[in-house]
Predict the structure.
Amino acid sequence: MTDSSKKIGLSRDQMAERAARDIPDGSYVNLGIGIPELVASHVLEGREFIYHTENGLLGMGPSPAPGEGEPELINAGKKRVTALPGASYFHHADSFTMIRGGHLDLCVLGALQVSERGDLANWSTGSPDAIPAVGGAMDLVAGVKKIFVITQHVRRDGTPKLVSACSYPLTSPGVVDRIYTNLAVIDVTENGFQLVELAPGISYDYVAERTGAPLVRIEDDPRQTGR
Amino acid sequence: MIDKTIDSPAAAVADITNGATVMIGGFGEAGSPIELIHALIDQGASDLTVVNNNTGSGEVGLAALIKTGRVSQMICSYPRTVNSTVFPELYQRERIALELVPQGTLAERIRAGGAGIPAFYTRTAVGTPLEEGKEKRHFDGNDYVMERGLTADFSLIKCRAADIHGNLVYNKTARNFSPLMATAGAVTIVQAGEIVPLGSIDPECVVTPGIFVNRVVEVREPAQESDLVARGVSYA
C-alpha cells in the first residue's frame, strides 16, 4: 500500500482526458486549480465547452506562450490566460451569480477527501498552524449543477482519499457526483461509491483495497469487464 | 459643476483615519490600486480593517501596507497566494486578525452592503466550519446561512478610464470586486489610467456609474505588482 501508486494507472493528463470525455457539448464549465486545469487541453472533436473563471471571465482560452499575456488577464489560480472570441468580462457579483444561481453546468475540482455520501473536503487539512484559505470552492460546490472530482486515488502515504467519512473540514456535504482517479471512475450514489470503469490493467480488488469505503460493483456492467 | 478629479494619490487618501474600514479592489495583482495603497502607507493611518480577496504579494501594495503594521484585520477569501509571505508570517505570530469569507459570499456581502441590504441567506458554507455562529434558515427544502452586508468607510479601486463625473470602465479581469466596492464605500477613491472627456465613454458601456464615485486621480502607466516583486522592490 505504501509503494507509490502515482505511477500506477492513468497519468494526470489521462485522468483529465477521461473526465473531458464525459462533458456534454455546449457545457458551461468551471475548472479548479491543479489536475482539473488540464481538462481544458482536451476539447473533443465536435464539442464546444465554454470555460468560466470566477474572477470574471466567461470564454477563457488557453494560456499564452511563456512571457506573453497580460497581468490583468488571469484565471482564478492567478495565472495568465487568454480570452476567446465571444468571451465576456464581468464583476464578482455577476460571476458568483453564475455560480450560486445554478447557471454553470459543471465544475471539476480537486479533493483532499471525498466521502461515500459525496461530502467534499478540499480547502483545509484542519491543521492548527495552517493559514486558512477557502477561495471560491464552497460557492462552486453549493451552486454548480454537477460536480466532478479529479484526484489521485490515494495520498502520498498510501492512505485512501475516498473514505466513509471525511476527517478534514468539509467544503460542502453531499455534493460530489463523479470521481476520476488514476485507478478508476467512480460514481457517488445512494448506495455509496459505485465503480463505473477501471483504468487499463487495474483490477477491481486493487481499487477496492485502496478505497476507504465499500466499492459497489455492478457485475453485469459491460464497461468494467472489457478493460 | 461636478469635477471629482484630485491632483495626486496623496491628496486623494489624505483623510483616511485610524481605525477605518477600507475596501481595496483587485484579485491578486489584477486591479490592485498600488499607487493609492502606497499613498496610504505614506499617509500613516493605522489600525485599519482591510477587505480584499487576498493579502498581496512580495512587499509592495497591499502586502506592504500589512507589513508596515497598519492593518489590524483582514477580511478575505484566500490570504495565501503566489509570493504571499507577509500576511502568513504575521498571522502565525498573531499580529493580525483574519475573517475568512468564501469568495462568492464576500462579493455578495459587498454587493448587499452597497445596495442597502443588511443581510441575506446563502447555501454557501452550510455544513462546514464557516457556518459556525451564523443564523440558519430553511427555505424550500434547503438549509441556508445568514450573511451580513458589508460596507466600508473608504474604497480604493483602480480602473482603465474615468471621466470627471466618475463614470468608470475597467480592464479585463482587473474589474473583479471593484464595481461592488465602489457601491459599498462611503467614500470611493479611484485611480484611473486616464481621465477622458465627458461623453467619450459610451453610456451603454459605463460599468460603474459616477454616482458611486467620490474622487478620481489619474495614474498613467500604473505599476504592476508582479513587475515590482520581480525587481525586488519593497515599499514596506
